[in-house]
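pinging the channel bc i need a second pair of eyes. not urgent but kinda urgent?? the chain im working w is below, pasted from the shared doc
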Amino acid sequence: MSRRVSEAVEIAAAPETVSAHVDDFQNVGSHMTERSMAMMGRRLRLDRISENATGVGACYRWHGRIAGLAIDLTEVVTEWVPNRHQVWETVGDPRLIIMSGYRMSFTLAPMSTGTVLTITIEYELPGSLFGRVLGWLLGDVYSRWCLRRMCRDTRKALEKGSVLAEKR
């Protein structure tokens, strides 16, 4: 059974600017490379595997340890429409704790004052009983935290000094 969580944010920037920011895995995944409570005080490393940094086929590896458990997963971009839409998903046999694998996407919708960024994750619960229970309890909570951080961090990075941002 697939689970799905989405988060949206209005950003006072053109779709091209937002797209360039979220198309960079270093930017959109920065919350995974910082120590935090949600990461149990740990952080993951990000390595680019593919020659291309963006577009279909762009491939990245996240790895590290959380709560003494190895985390190791590879993501690949499977759909890419510049300045509008991107989909990336785990491939192979990801080593995760509260989900077995996932598919994420972002869509950009232009508006008169900027862009609406919507980020979505669809994930499967792990196969083991313990993993399924943990995933059922924490999967949506963790997913919401990730998506909120991605949206908030993007808005913060792109609206620095913006007159529209100061009015919010």
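so Helices lie at 15-22, 25-28, 129-158, 163-166. and Residues 85 and 107 are 4 Å apart (CA to CA). — does that match what u expected or am i reading it wrong
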